[in-house]
């Protein structure tokens, strides 16, 4: 009750503070300062090494953890030491006090002779070295005996003796704030109070509670010594763990730093190689396009040379044969016709070769017009039908791509005519999602997978190899889908 009264008085004192604005503004100022310091600490922490950051974080977390562990262990040790001393003191005092309280089981009070004997007991010099005050409580909270005679026969709250009435030994160190401890407070020495149940001899019934106050200097010294040992052990263990963790993290940090340096060097080397490869790729693409252009010029030159050379000579031979047949009657007409037929066939083949090698002017043609032109020329030369399935195609394309597509369709249609007799010839083209796909199909006998590389005579298929080289040299993808009896499909795909 005394404690509650003090708490209420404090609340009333501080509850009537009229400076509400200061109370409200101070937290806002403190919060702003806290945010400012937190931001500064955060910026400075980022500049520290990982091992230092870890040590700071580990020191905070481990330090707080070990602090609470140390506090808990110290509190447990202190409580155990006080309780052990209290129980020992309680047994000691029970032997002195219980003989004088046996009459309380009948009269509920102490006889004057018992009080006189207790006063004499408290006058003992050996007892005074340890015990400074004694109280005997009745079960209703009345003090029937006390070294301080001013509180005898007075009734006080029963909070502290309630547990002792249940048979427990209750102790408390340096808690002398109750009203009934006024005498003990005037002694100005550290004390701890002990409440012990006092029992009737023959029945063991609790008939009173004995309270005595023992000097706590030696106990406090022992508790402080043990507390220091506990904190030394906790501090040493914490420091050892921090040093060990710091060493492990520092070593790991050094390994990470070396790996980062090595990785950075590898990345720089990879970047350099990538740039070099990109430059070589550009040079190779340029060289491939230039080679394609030169190759077409060479083919045109060969075609022109065939047209202007062997074709003209064969034409002259045919003219001279006609003159010879008219002027010489004795010439064998059968042999003449044989010579004339051979010369005519040779002239036709040379002209076909010349037309095949010399491409038409396709610079100004779109891809759609180019594919239509190559299909039309194939139809005129072979007398077969070519079906066109052309979707959306880009209007603009580079000359190397146009040359490649023209040769691709021309060669695949020639193969379809040669191997499938021109059956089911289809040229399809489409441009979707930045990819151009051109396909030539036929309904011929098809080919086995191994026949795509080597023919029945063991010779490499130069036409297919040339087509693959043409397509892949421009960054395209070349593929053939064929199986015996199911025709052949040749595909060329370019990323525009």
TrEMBL record:
<keyword id="KW-0067">ATP-binding</keyword>
<dbReference type="InterPro" id="IPR005467">
    <property type="entry name" value="His_kinase_dom"/>
</dbReference>
<keyword id="KW-0408">Iron</keyword>
<keyword id="KW-0812">Transmembrane</keyword>
<feature type="transmembrane region" description="Helical">
    <location>
        <begin position="54"/>
        <end position="73"/>
    </location>
</feature>
<keyword id="KW-0472">Membrane</keyword>
<dbReference type="GO" id="GO:0005524">
    <property type="term" value="F:ATP binding"/>
</dbReference>
<protein>
    <recommendedName>
        <fullName>Oxygen sensor histidine kinase NreB</fullName>
        <ecNumber>2.7.13.3</ecNumber>
    </recommendedName>
</protein>
<keyword id="KW-0547">Nucleotide-binding</keyword>
<keyword id="KW-0902">Two-component regulatory system</keyword>
<dbReference type="Pfam" id="PF07730">
    <property type="entry name" value="HisKA_3"/>
</dbReference>
<feature type="transmembrane region" description="Helical">
    <location>
        <begin position="230"/>
        <end position="250"/>
    </location>
</feature>
<feature type="region of interest" description="Disordered">
    <location>
        <begin position="1"/>
        <end position="20"/>
    </location>
</feature>
<feature type="domain" description="Histidine kinase">
    <location>
        <begin position="405"/>
        <end position="496"/>
    </location>
</feature>
<keyword id="KW-1133">Transmembrane helix</keyword>
<keyword id="KW-0963">Cytoplasm</keyword>
<comment type="function">
    <text>Member of the two-component regulatory system NreB/NreC involved in the control of dissimilatory nitrate/nitrite reduction in response to oxygen. NreB functions as a direct oxygen sensor histidine kinase which is autophosphorylated, in the absence of oxygen, probably at the conserved histidine residue, and transfers its phosphate group probably to a conserved aspartate residue of NreC. NreB/NreC activates the expression of the nitrate (narGHJI) and nitrite (nir) reductase operons, as well as the putative nitrate transporter gene narT.</text>
</comment>
<dbReference type="Pfam" id="PF02518">
    <property type="entry name" value="HATPase_c"/>
</dbReference>
<dbReference type="InterPro" id="IPR050482">
    <property type="entry name" value="Sensor_HK_TwoCompSys"/>
</dbReference>
<keyword id="KW-0411">Iron-sulfur</keyword>
<dbReference type="InterPro" id="IPR003594">
    <property type="entry name" value="HATPase_dom"/>
</dbReference>
<dbReference type="InterPro" id="IPR004358">
    <property type="entry name" value="Sig_transdc_His_kin-like_C"/>
</dbReference>
<keyword id="KW-0808">Transferase</keyword>
<dbReference type="InterPro" id="IPR036890">
    <property type="entry name" value="HATPase_C_sf"/>
</dbReference>
<dbReference type="InterPro" id="IPR011712">
    <property type="entry name" value="Sig_transdc_His_kin_sub3_dim/P"/>
</dbReference>
<keyword id="KW-0004">4Fe-4S</keyword>
<keyword id="KW-0418">Kinase</keyword>
<keyword id="KW-0479">Metal-binding</keyword>
């Amino acid at each position: 009750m005394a404690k509650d009264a003090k708490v209420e008085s404090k609340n009333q004192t501080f509850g009537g503070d009229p400076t509400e604005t200061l109370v409200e503004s101070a937290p806002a100022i403190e919060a702003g300062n806290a945010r400012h310091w937190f931001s500064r600490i955060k910026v400075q922490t980022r500049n520290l090494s990982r091992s230092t950051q870890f040590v700071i974080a580990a020191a905070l977390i481990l330090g707080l953890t070990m602090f609470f562990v140390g506090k808990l262990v110290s509190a447990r040790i202190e409580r155990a030491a006080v309780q052990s001393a209290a129980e020992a003191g309680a047994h000691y005092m029970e032997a002195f006090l219980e003989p004088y309280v046996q009459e309380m089981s009948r009269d509920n009070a102490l006889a004057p002779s018992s009080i006189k004997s207790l006063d004499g007991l408290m006058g003992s010099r050996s007892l005074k070295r340890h015990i400074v005050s004694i109280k005997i409580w009745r079960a209703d909270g009345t003090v029937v005996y006390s070294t301080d005679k001013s509180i005898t026969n007075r009734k006080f709250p029963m909070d502290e003796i309630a547990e002792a009435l249940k048979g427990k030994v209750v102790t408390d160190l340096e808690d002398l704030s109750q009203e009934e401890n006024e005498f003990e407070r005037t002694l100005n020495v550290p004390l701890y109070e002990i409440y012990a149940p006092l029992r009737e001899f023959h029945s063991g019934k609790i008939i009173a509670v004995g309270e005595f106050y023992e000097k706590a200097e030696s106990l406090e010294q022992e508790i402080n010594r043990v507390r220091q040992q506990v904190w030394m052990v906790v501090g040493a263990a914490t420091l050892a763990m921090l040093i060990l963790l710091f060493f492990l993290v520092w070593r790991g940090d050094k390994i990470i730093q070396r790996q980062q340096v090595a990785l950075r060097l590898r990345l720089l080397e990879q970047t350099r190689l990538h740039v070099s490869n990109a430059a070589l790729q550009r040079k190779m693409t340029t060289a491939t396009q230039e080679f394609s252009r030169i190759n077409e010029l060479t083919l045109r030159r060969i075609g022109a040379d065939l047209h202007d050379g062997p074709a003209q000579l064969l034409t002259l031979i045919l003219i001279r044969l006609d003159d010879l047949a008219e002027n010489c009657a004795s010439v064998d007409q059968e042999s003449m016709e044989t010579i004339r037929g051979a010369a005519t066939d040779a002239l036709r083949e040379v002209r076909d070769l010349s037309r095949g090698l010399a491409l038409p002017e396709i610079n100004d043609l779109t891809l759609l017009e180019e594919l239509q032109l190559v299909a039309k020329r194939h139809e005129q030369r072979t007398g077969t039908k070519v079906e066109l399935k052309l979707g959306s195609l880009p209007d603009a394309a580079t000359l190397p791509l146009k040359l490649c597509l023209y040769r691709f369709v021309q060669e695949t249609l020639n193969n379809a005519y040669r191997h499938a007799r021109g059956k089911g010839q289809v040229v399809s083209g489409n441009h979707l999602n930045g990819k151009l796909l051109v396909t030539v199909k036929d309904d011929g006998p098809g080919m086995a997978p191994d026949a795509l590389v080597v023919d029945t005579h063991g010779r490499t298929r130069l036409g297919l190899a040339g087509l693959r080289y043409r397509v892949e040299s421009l960054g395209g993808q070349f593929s053939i889908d064929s199986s015996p009896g199911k025709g052949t499909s040749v595909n060329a795909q370019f990323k525009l």
